[in-house]
Amino acid sequence: MAERSVVIVGGGLVGSLAACYFAKRGWKVDLYEKRQDVRQPEHSCLVEHRSINLAISERGFSALRRLDPLLEARVRELAIPMHGRMIHALDGKQTSQAYDVFGKHINSVGRNALIRVLLDAADSYSWVTLHFRHELVDVDFDARRATLRNAETGHQLDSSADLIVGADGAYSRVRQRMMTKVMMNYSQTYIEHGYCEFSMAPINDAFAMDPNHLHIWPRGSFMLIALPNPDKSFTCTLFMPWRQFDQIKTGDEAVGFFRANFPDALDLMGEKSMCAEYARNPKGSLVYVKCTPHTYKNCAVILGDAAHAMVPFYGQGMNCGFEDVEKLDEIMLATLQASGSESTETTQLTDEQLLSALDEYSATRAADTDAIVDLALDNYVEMRSSVISYSYLLRKQLEGILHRLFPTFVIPLYTMVSFTSIPYAAVIRQWNRQTLWLHRSIYAATATAVLGAGLISAQLLGLRMPALNQVARIFSHNY
Ligand code: FAD
Asked: Where are its TM segments located (predicted)?
C-alpha cells in the first residue's frame, strides 16, 4: 500500500466525515481539533454558538451511505423525521405544509450525537489519530506542514502530510493562509439578523407539539422555528434583526415581545425558562462566505463551512459540506480508475493525478456551493414571510400537482435541494426554466380566459363586433 498521509484541521461535522473517507481509502490521517472531545461525558454539552440540532436530508445521507450504509442507518436511528412545516399563526392556529407530495421528509438530528458517531467511526481505523485541544497556528503549504498549539501544554508542534484539508469552519485559518498563496476570490457577508436558542421541555413526558414537523412562527421581518430532539424537547431558534435584539433588554421586555408575537410558544416554553435563556444564551451572528478556488496545487483543499459558510435557512450547510467530501472522493477515485487502476485506495494517486483531481474538484464544486449560498439567503424570505402569502401557496399547490403528474419534468425547488443530489447550480437553472414556463402558462391561461369571456359576452349580448366574431369563427372551425 502506498504511504499517503493527510492532516485534517477541524474535527467538526465535515472534518470528522472527511477523516472517515480518507481512512477508508487507505490514507494515514491526523485530525486536529481545537476543542475538547465531545465524546467525553464532561464535554458532551459543548456546542459553541451553534445550533443544538440540525436538519439532515438526502445529500447528507448520500455521503454517509457512500462511506458505509451501516453508518447511514445509525444516523437515521438518531434522527426524527419532519414531514412538513407547521405554520403557527398569531392566533395560535396551526397549518401543516408537507415538504413533498410523495411524502419525502427531512430529519432532525442532534449536532453532538452526529459528531460522536462520526468521530467513533474515524477512531475505528487504527491509522487515524485524533488530536483534541490542538489549534492550528500556521500552515506552510509548499512544505506540506501544519503548525499546531497544544492547549494543554502550550507547546507547538509541526505535523507534515501529503495533503492538508481545512475543515475548520466559517472563520477558517487554513483558508486565510491559502489566500496568501493563490489568487482567491473571496467574499464574507454578515446579514443584519442574529439568532438565539431556547428550549421547550416535554410536557408530561411527551412532546409539547407535533414532533414530526419543523415548526415556524413567521412574522415578516423575524421568525421563530423549532426542531424536535430525541429527549422529547424542542430546540427553538429566534432569528431577528440585531436592532430588535438590542431593544429587548430586560426579562419583562422579552416576555412582552414573546407574548405579542409567539404567545402559544411562550406558554409551552414557560415565561421563566424563556427569560432565563434569553439572558443567558449567546446571540449568534449569521455570515456567508463565497470563495474560489477551494484548493492549492496538490497540497491543500478546504471543505465545508471553510469553503462556503451559508445562512442556515435551507438546512443545507452541513448537508453541502458532507456532499463536498463525497464529491472529492468520487473525483479522486475516478481519476485513479481512469489511469487503469482497479484499486479503491486513492493513496495510489501520483502527485500529478492528485493535482488533476483537486483542480477538477475546485473547478466543478465552486459553482454549486455559490448556488446553495444564494438559495439559502433567498429561503429566509420564504420562511419568515412567503409561507403565508397566497401567491406562494398557489404556486406550491400548482407545482405539487404538476410534480405528481410529471415527476421528472416539474420538480419543486425544495424537493430538488433537499431530496435529490442534483448539483445546486443545475437546481437553479432548472428552477428558472420551470418558473419561465409556469409564467408563460399562467399568461396563456389568463389570456385564453379573458378572450373566451369576451367572446361569450359578445355572443350573449348579440354585439356586432367583427373582429371578435372573426376570432370566434376561426375557433369554431378549428376546434
Ligand atoms: P464547523 O461545524 O464550524 O466545524 C469546524 C471545526 O473546526 C470546529 O470543531 C472548530 O472547533 C474547529 N476549528 C476551528 N478553527 C480551528 C483551528 N484553528 N484549529 C483546529 N480546529 C479548529 N446545516 C444543515 O445542514 N442543516 C441545518 O439544519 C443547519 N442548521 C443550522 C442552524 C444554525 C443556527 C447554524 C448557525 C448553522 C446551521 N447549519 C445547518 C450549518 C451547519 O452548522 C454548518 O454548515 C456545519 O456545522 C459545518 O460544518 P464544518 O465541519 O464545516 O464546520
From this structure: 405-427, 442-463
- Whether 211 lines ligand 1, by a CB cut-off of 6 Å, is no
Q: Cα–Cα distance between 301 and 163 in angstroms, integer?
A: 8
pLDDT tens, position by position, 423-478: 999 999 999 999 888 878 777 888 888 888 878 887 777 765 555 555 445 444 43
- Determine the distance separating the centroid of ligand 1 and the alpha carbon of 351, expressed in angstroms: 30
Tens of pLDDT, residue by residue over 101-129, are: 999 999 999 999 999 999 999 999 999 99
Q: Beta partners for 241?
A: 193
The single residue listed with the C-alpha cell 415581545 is 257
Q: Are residues 430 and 301 in the same domain?
A: no
pTM, two decimal places: 0.92
The total number of residues shown for the chain amounts to 479
Q: Which atom of ligand 1 is the closest one to the Cα of 317?
A: 45
- Check if 51 has its Cβ closer than 6 Å to any atom of ligand 1: yes
Q: What is the domain count for the chain?
A: 3
Residue 436 is part of which domain span?
A: 389-457
Domain shared by 159 and 308, yes or no? yes
Q: Which atom belonging to ligand 1 lies closest to the Cα atom of 16? A: 51
Which of 239, 258, 285 is where one domain is finished? 285
What is the helix (H) or strand (E) element at residue 118, kind and residue range?
helix 111-123
Residue type, 209: M
Q: Is the CB–ligand 1 distance for residue 9 below 6 Å?
A: yes
Beta pairing partners, 148 = 136, 157
Q: Is the dihedral of CA 374, 54, 109, 386 positive or negative?
A: negative
- Ligand 1 centroid, distance to 432 Cα (angstroms): 30
Kindly report the backbone phi and psi dihedral angles of residue 27, in degrees, each rounded to the nearest multiple of 5, phi listed first.
-80, 145
User: Is residue 292 within 8 Å of residue 190, measured between CB atoms?
Assistant: no
Which residue among 21, 31, 50 is best mutated to probe the pocket of ligand 1, counting the most ligand atoms within 8 A of its Cβ? 50
* Residue 169 Cα to ligand 1 middle (Å): 5
